[in-house]
Specification:
With 369 residues, the protein is α/β, with parallel strands linked by helices. The chain has a 7-stranded mixed β-sheet, sandwiched between helices. A 5-stranded mixed β-sheet has the order 1-13-14-12-11. Helix 12 crosses helix 13. Helices cover 38% and strands 17% of the residues. A hairpin with an 8-residue loop joins strand 13 and strand 14. It binds pyridoxal-5'-phosphate (PLP). Pyridoxal-5'-phosphate binds next to helix 4.
Length: 369
């Protein structure tokens, strides 16, 4: 404690967990987490040691990339060289696409499912990459990746990278481990496979597959996030596990001066709060069933199964505009989709149980007019 900043603390006023951003508007359009983080997160912010803010990390002196990377190394059983951090999953995805898809003598190709997060194509466009798609099809109240269709497109296009989200946004379905293994079989070793698991943990808490998968698949990058399950979207932390063949990316993504030390500490504390997050997830599962039961009973509505924290609902085209205005007037902001294949679909992020009840009641009220 020899200088001015040691031992000083910042004091923050906890936000009201039910009300985010603008008063009384309920935002359920970007798959955020409306329960708020556990108490330990507020405690860390309240008691933050300002040295963490003023100084770069000195983890490198112990041969470690950072405190959080060391934590992951322990938890997932992989060496630090296979682990990276980023400014949200978004940042890691952008980095890997820019690293391998940038125009370099020839145009590079990215392969994604036809229905997937629009952002993948956007980041490939930024570096003049070509984006091609493989089929994903509706099977009653779920979607499935067409692995055979993927094989055909793969053979025709020989893409430099394949990027699949599991669970997928906006369809909510996942790629099983067997399906992932089939994808890996199809793909040549010099094609990078990116598995975007931003929405992991809602329906599958298992992490034991990650270590063997990364060890056996040199061309695989698996991306995860603290934004969704852990409700820390504003903190902007994502992490990834990369196979040993992605050396170019290991160099590209390395950070000489480290990461956000406060965010790292919060992330570790949040990950230790298993019971808090399991309880929220239990409520979310109950609410997914509630959406399926109540909205699924309305004529012309299909509620799709979801392994994530949002649900996709197909509604009659003719009510789309009216319902949008009705929901906005009620200050319940859900996503009215307007993209390939989804022109009369809602993507509703799960809120608190009280918020979800209000959304269901409002939609039922409009539909019964
Ligand atoms: C499929 C998918 N991947 C990744 C992300 C990135 O999230 P973040 O950058 O907050 O980790 C999102 C955000 O909505 C997403 O929908």
């Amino acid at each position: 404690m020899n200088d001015s900043i040691h031992g000083r603390f910042i004091h923050l006023i906890p936000i009201n967990r039910e009300i985010t951003m603008e008063q009384d508007i309920v935002y359920l359009d970007r798959n955020e987490h409306n329960y708020g983080p556990p108490k330990c997160v507020y405690d860390i912010l309240k008691n933050a040691d300002l040295t963490k803010i003023s100084w770069y990390s000195r983890s490198f002196m112990t041969g470690s990339k950072s405190k959080l990377v060391a934590y992951f190394s322990e938890r997932f059983g992989l060496p630090e060289k296979n682990i990276l951090l980023g400014y949200g999953g978004e940042d890691i995805l952008k980095q890997v696409v820019h690293c391998y898809i940038s125009f370099d003598k020839t145009q590079k190709t990215l392969l994604v499912p036809r229905y997937s997060w629009w952002y993948y194509k956007a980041i490939a466009d930024e570096v003049d990459g070509k984006t091609v798609t493989f089929p994903i099809y509706q099977d009653k109240d779920t979607f499935r990746f067409d692995i055979e269709g993927m094989r055909k497109v793969f053979q025709e296009e020989k893409p430099d990278m394949i990027l699949i989200a599991s669970p997928n946004n906006p369809t909510g379905n996942s790629l099983s481990l067997d399906e992932l293994k089939k994808v890996i079989e199809v793909v040549d070793q010099d094609t990078v496979i990116v598995l975007d698991e931003a929405y992991a943990q809602y329906e599958n808490a298992d992490i034991s597959y990650i270590k063997p998968l990364i060890e056996d698949t040199p061309n695989l990058l698996l991306v995860r996030s603290f934004s969704k399950y852990y409700g820390l979207a504003g903190l902007r932390i994502g992490y990834g596990f990369m196979g040993n063949g992605l050396e170019k990316f290991a160099q590209f993504s390395a950070r000489y001066l480290g990461y956000n030390r406060l965010s790292e500490e919060i992330a570790i504390a949040a990950m230790e709060e298993t019971a808090y997050y399991e309880d929220i997830n239990r409520k979310m599962r109950e609410d997914k069933a509630l959406f399926a039961k109540e909205l699924g009973a309305i004529d012309g509505f299909t509620v799709f199964k979801s392994d994530a924290n949002f649900i996709l609902v197909e509604i009659p085209q003719e009510i789309t505009d009216g319902l949008k205005k009705f929901m906005n007037d009620k200050r319940l902001i859900i996503k009215f989709m307007n993209e390939d294949g989804f022109t009369h679909h809602l993507r509703i992020s799960l809120g608190t149980q009280e918020q979800n009840r209000r959304v269901i009641d409002a939609i039922k009220e409009y539909a019964s007019r």
